[in-house]
Amino acid sequence: MYDAVGVAKIIANYADDLPRADVVAEEIPVKLADLGAAYGYNVSEIRSAQFAGVNLSAMKARAARRAIDEKLNSIAWKGDAAHNITGFIDNSNITEVTLAADGTGSSTKFSDKTVAQIIRDVNKIIDAIPNATNQVENPDTVIMAPAAYNHLATTPRSEHSDLTILEFLRRTHPEIRRWLKVGALKNAGTDSTDMIFAGRFEPDYVKFEIPERYRQLPVEIRNLEYIINCLARVIGVTVTLPLAFSKASGV
Questions:
Q1: Is the confidence at residue 20, as pLDDT, over 80?
Q2: Is the pLDDT of residue 2 over 70?
Q3: Contact between residue 55 and residue 38 where contact means Cβ atoms under 8 Å apart
Q4: How far apart are CA 147 and CA 109, in angstroms?
């Protein structure tokens, strides 16, 4: 985990005491985990393919690759608590914002709040990053669960406006280049509630470490079947700049 330090100053000609800027690093051990899936063809399938003069179907190979990719995607978002792998959603370097429970029935959900309350909440999530970093870092992306995104994208700013809430927020925050809905954020928060995140989704800020994406081992013969084992290796998600992301549950 890295943090930049140092402040520039006005200097005189021939100055030899320029202030130093540097990067402070904290080493945090993480665990490397192996993923595996397999597929195979039995003798009957191979004989049939040879007799018909066609190649064996690649659907099984694609299914194995898809199984590994889906597990990698799950780890990227939610980690794996049983194997001590940290994902993005529960990363400790992300600032957590508590939303006001002033919607209908003391709800925090966007669908239970007024337009003004929703805009206030989204502004609070976005502003949490520059406020926590002394205005050094600013988010460029907001991601949220599908239900929250759809509500913002379909609800008018007011009965006298042809803008939706989302269109109004886009104009209010031109620094946010992307507003995205992400299925992994559904039921991912406190008490299985939907979530919203803001941050700068660039390699210098957040990384999903995959030392080995996908590898097929040599074919093994087991009884009357030919088995192909497939492997991947994963570390998890590292937020390299603390406080450069914010999140909230209950939207």
A1: no
A2: no
A3: no
A4: 10
